[in-house]
């Protein structure tokens, strides 16, 4: 699915701003009349923290957004689409009373062709419903319980707040009747020549002409046809710290005239696994960086360009070269920024919480089978497969994406895990053979008990020795961490990335001795991990959990959210951030 853009033949009208807003069931057909509310909600933003009513923050079910849209007068002979970049976790779009789109999945876009329902120069009422309900058959999963007071309460196993609403942009856009519907770009390197393979999908009639331009706007390669190879002599490769981008100009001609144009940035690079090494452009890379969240005060998961720029500036200050989109696909603007600035991305689908015993280290195991007809089942797997299709479809052309992550911390040690994940991993490879595949392993699944790790190209590990285990005993934590990493290396002989490690720290809490929750303790935990990483050959990356403190559901062991960030939620550095800067800015990547 190509992102809407303004080109020689396309126009885009963003609909960001204040929308009429109401929560709960409507007493009339959606879109049939103005919403019965005086509330207004900004788009993009999660709605949960905007208002002061607790009932809205913890609301379970549908909410409704509405505004009037005027179609530009110049779109008379064009096709018109409504595009929703994300509706968490399910969405319905109405033009007037007409339902034009439905979608399940909270972090990928969907759209509707509304050409026959709107007229250029006229207004129409646009209504969007968003449902935040999670069940055992959604990605991520959850359950809804009814409290003794009769209230509905959403329960879930992922450790971040279930922010909901229209957290990303909404727009209408136009295309010609004959248009380029999709582009898929893969790249190879042949000596010093870059090879850009382009597959085009055309909706309509016409001839595709492809032109690749360098940073100066000069055409360096051209070809005709829906499938073509563009060869670039002395290509400038895309890589970490050297984000060289070319511009692919795809033109559709009909009867010798311009019918459509789509412009796509292209980075020429390769990524593959060789033994214990992760190679980008045939050079070994060592990932340094973070697990992150789309999470800011007031906005929740609402995309914000100011935070986008500031967060990347802070990552650059630490010397980071990578991040994981934990635990869902981020706004596409984030990946575009990573493309332009040379960051490596582990792109993860929203499959988090696929482990009904995940509280084992804190509460003791629930003893419930994760994979069964009544829990995580075939319908969950089908939803998971669709989430992977939409992830790859949206992000396949971003050079910054070097790994697909199919899940975070599933019960990969339980019966049924292999049967659940093997077809999903195979599907991911089928969708995109050009990138390695991974999943992120939880400590409960050891090298000896994990049933899935041999299926993936890179093994990602989340480990909390020194925090949930060996608390305040850093000598034992260092010994246990090194022992386990070496067992993974010996058993699977493939690259390891420690995708989560760290400890909670309350900003401003200090001690001269070993005391959890202090800034010094968080710093010392990270330091011990780094010593171990440097001693284990298979470790090819380290991503601290977390970049910044973030909001979680209410829990007795969380004080105003998760405090594992090396920056506070409002992006002030803790002592650990300075430790990372000292290590990463001097490390050779």
Write up what this structure looks like.
With 589 residues, the protein is of the alpha+beta class. It has three domains: 11-175, Galactose-binding domain-like (Jelly Rolls); 179-269, Sandwich (Immunoglobulin-like), CATH 2.60.40; 272-584, TIM Barrel (Alpha-Beta Barrel). The chain is 18% helix and 32% strand. An eight-stranded parallel barrel has the order 25-26-27-28-29-30-31-32, surrounded by five helices. Strand 30 (458-462), helix 6 (474-492) and strand 31 (496-500) form a beta-alpha-beta unit. The longest helix has 19 residues, at 474-492. It is globular and about 70 Å long. The model is unreliable at 360-364 (pLDDT under 50).
Task: Give me a quick take on this structure.
18% of the residues lie in helices and 32% in strands. It contains eight helices and 32 strands. The protein has helices spanning 54-57, 305-318, 332-341, 378-395, 417-431, 474-492, 519-535, 575-584, and strands spanning 11-14, 17-23, 40-43, 62-70, 79-84, 90-95, 98-104, 110-113, 123-131, 143-146, 152-155, 170-175, 179-190, 193-203, 207-213, 219-224, 227-232, 238-239, 242-243, 246-254, 257-266, 271-274, 277-280, 283-284, 287-291, 322-324, 344-348, 401-408, 437-441, 458-462, 496-500, 539-545.
């Amino acid at each position: 699915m190509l992102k809407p853009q303004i080109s020689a033949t396309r126009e885009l009208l963003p609909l960001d701003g204040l929308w009429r807003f109401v929560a709960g069931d409507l007493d009339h057909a959606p879109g049939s009349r103005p919403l019965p509310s005086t509330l207004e909600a900004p788009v993009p933003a999660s709605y949960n923290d905007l208002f002061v009513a607790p009932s809205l923050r913890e609301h379970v079910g549908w909410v409704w957004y509405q505004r009037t849209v005027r179609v530009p007068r110049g779109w008379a002979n064009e096709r018109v689409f409504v595009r929703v970049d994300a509706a968490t976790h399910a969405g319905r779009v109405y033009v007037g009373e007409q339902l034009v789109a439905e979608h399940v999945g909270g972090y990928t876009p969907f759209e509707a062709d509304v050409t026959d329902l709107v007229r250029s120069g006229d207004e129409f009422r646009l209504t969007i419903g968003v449902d935040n309900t999670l069940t055992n058959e959604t990605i991520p999963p959850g359950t809804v319980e009814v409290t003794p007071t009769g209230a509905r309460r959403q329960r879930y196993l992922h450790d971040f707040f279930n922010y909901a609403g229209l957290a990303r942009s909404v727009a209408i856009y136009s295309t010609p009747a004959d248009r380029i519907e999709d582009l898929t770009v893969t790249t190879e390197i042949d000596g010093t020549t870059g090879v850009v393979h382009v597959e085009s999908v055309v909706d309509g009639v016409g001839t595709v002409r492809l032109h690749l331009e360098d940073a100066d706007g000069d055409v360096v390669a051209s070809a005709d046809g829906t499938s073509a190879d563009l060869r670039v002599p002395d290509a400038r490769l895309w890589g970490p710290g050297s984000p060289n981008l070319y511009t692919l100009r795809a033109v559709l001609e009909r009867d010798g005239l311009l019918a459509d144009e789509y412009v796509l940035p292209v980075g020429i690079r390769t990524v593959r696994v060789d033994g214990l090494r992760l190679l980008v452009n045939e050079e070994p890379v060592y990932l340094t960086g973070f697990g992150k969240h789309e999470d800011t005060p007031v906005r929740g998961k609402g995309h914000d360009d100011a935070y986008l720029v500031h967060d990347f500036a802070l990552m650059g200050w630490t010397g980071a070269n990578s991040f994981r989109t934990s635990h869902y696909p981020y706004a596409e603007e984030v990946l575009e920024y990573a493309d332009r600035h040379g960051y490596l991305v582990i792109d993860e689908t929203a499959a988090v919480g696929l482990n009904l015993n995940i509280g084992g280290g804190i509460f003791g195991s629930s003893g419930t089978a994760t994979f069964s007809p009544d829990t995580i089942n075939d319908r969950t797997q089908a939803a998971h497969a669709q989430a992977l299709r939409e992830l790859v479809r949206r992000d396949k052309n971003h050079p910054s994406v070097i790994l697909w992550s199919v899940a975070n911390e599933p019960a990969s040690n339980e019966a049924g895990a292999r049967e659940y994940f093997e077809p999903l991993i195979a599907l991911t490879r089928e969708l995109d053979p050009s990138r390695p595949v991974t999943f992120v392993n939880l400590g409960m699944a050891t090298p000896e008990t994990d049933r899935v790790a041999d299926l993936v190209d890179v093994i990602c590990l989340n480990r909390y020795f020194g925090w949930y285990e060996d608390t305040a005993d850093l000598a034992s934590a260092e010994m246990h961490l090194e022992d386990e990493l070496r067992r993974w290396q010996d058993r699977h002989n493939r690259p390891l990335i420690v995708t989560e490690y760290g400890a909670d720290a309350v900003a401003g809490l200090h001690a001269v001795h070993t005391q959890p929750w202090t800034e010094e303790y968080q710093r010392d935990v990270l330091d011990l991990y780094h010593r171990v990483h440097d001693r284990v050959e298979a470790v090819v990356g380290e991503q601290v959990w977390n970049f910044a403190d973030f909001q979680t559901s209410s829990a007795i062991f969380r004080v105003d959210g998760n405090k594992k960030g090396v920056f506070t939620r409002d992006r002030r550095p803790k002592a650990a951030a300075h430790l990372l800067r000292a290590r990463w800015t001097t490390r050779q990547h």
